[in-house]
Amino acid sequence: MNELQLGLIGAGAVIVIGVVLYNAWQGARVRRRMPRPMPPEVAEQTRAVPDISDDRPFIEPAYTAPRPQPGSPAVPAAPPPASGAPDRREPTFGPDALDERREPTLGGDTFGEMDPAEAALAQEPQAAGDATDGVMDSVTGDATAEAGAQAHGESAPAPHAADATAAGTAADAEADPAHSNASNSSSTPNPQPAASAQPGWVDHRIDCVVLLRIPMSVMGDKVIPLAQRIRRAGSKPVYIEGQRESDDGWESLQSGTRYRELRAAVQLANRSGALNELEFSEFVTGVQSLADAIDAAPEFPDMIETVAMARELDAFAAQCDAQLSINVMSDGAPWSANYVQAVAAQDGLLLSRDGTRFVKLDVRQSPIFMLQFGETNFLRDDLTFKGGQMITLLLDVPVADEDILPFRLMCDYAASLSQRIGARVVDDQRRTLPESALEAIEKQLLTLYAKLEHAGIPAGSAAARRLFSN
């Protein structure tokens, strides 16, 4: 064996010995940290002591006696469990506990009782006027927008009152009012007669109405399930309404109400286009099925005349369908979506259901204008890393109420927003908007509002919101 082999053997032996010694040292450290075993005599004494938790759970469920009402006999407290274990009692709210300790109350002997007047005040909405805060009323500035009337059938879907996330507001019912009332009525387990009639939504200016002559009055509970089968005809909503025996007015179907006459209606046009022959045939088939179920005689109009009326209404709507947008562009670094969301929420704007825009509502919970931040979806995107340099404010002209001057409110809000977050108001080409352009836009809006008013469909009305919807 040469010197190289001897050196390798020696190095290997040293490494093996080092590993063995290291393992022995680690084992000694672990053994020192382990708990020492209990001496045998102490262990025997411990086994003789019964464990409380051997026959009972760690947390014993305590019986809570119902709180006695004034004038009712007292309920005895539950007896303690019969066991050899030491007495153990959990806090209870039984009569004995009440005698031992009473918490302070607010002017009454029974905890939780409230004066009827106080209860009514407690249930009253706390922020009835939050939707119309004064952010936009205190600032004036240079702002305007570019307007373009788009083809009614080709325009992009515009947000309306049903997009807002104000749960329980009137915006949800305006998108499909008859179906909303029918669904609520049919889901009631024990229907009661309606205290007041819900006004009907059928409008002869934008609907094709079909009367259903019935030989005898019919209950709304029978018609509601049948009406829900024909909620739409293609892309057009269908409405079923009734006329009470004691009233000449039309209303949405209610459970527990008897109707002497019914009518069905299909919307002639919306932003999806005019009612066509196929949709009209689908509507007729559904109404005829409903009429056969209740022995009614429907009076259908002529299909050719109805389709012609629908196309005429759609052409008029295309002339009045306009959307205005202005932009707020950052003067410096881009904003994060998280920052834009905080600013919009602070200014009283509500996030839409799909999360793509914020909506500014008026006191009637109708939309004034929308706020968008590029393609950001505030419900799905990561708001920390999503950013941009431009905020877009959008006005759906025929949907917003003209009496509150929605375009002026949107421009004032844009000016206020730009001053607060370090930005400037620009158009789609990122050019600063002059005051002269703003005045020209307002003159064009007056002409459009007059045209809608002359047709009996003023901007912001229920008929306008239905006509300029999807």
UniProtKB/TrEMBL annotation:
Biased segments, Pro residues type: 67-83
Pfam family, one: ZipA_C
Residue ranges with Low complexity bias: 153-199
Disordered: annotated span: 36-113, 145-199
All copies of domain ZipA C-terminal FtsZ-binding, residue ranges: 320-445
Superkingdom in the source lineage: Bacteria
Residue spans crossing the bilayer: 6-25
Keywords on record: Cell cycle, Cell division, Cell inner membrane, Cell membrane, Membrane, Transmembrane, Transmembrane helix
Tagged with keyword Hydrolase: no
Lyase found in the keyword field: no
GO biological process, one term: cell septum assembly
Topology in the lipid bilayer: Single-pass type I membrane protein
GO cellular component, one term: plasma membrane
SUPFAM superfamilies: Cell-division protein ZipA, C-terminal domain (SSF64383)
Protein's cellular compartments: Cell inner membrane
Role of this protein: Essential cell division protein that stabilizes the FtsZ protofilaments by cross-linking them and that serves as a cytoplasmic membrane anchor for the Z ring. Also required for the recruitment to the septal ring of downstream cell division proteins.
Stated family: Belongs to the ZipA family.
This protein's name: Cell division protein ZipA
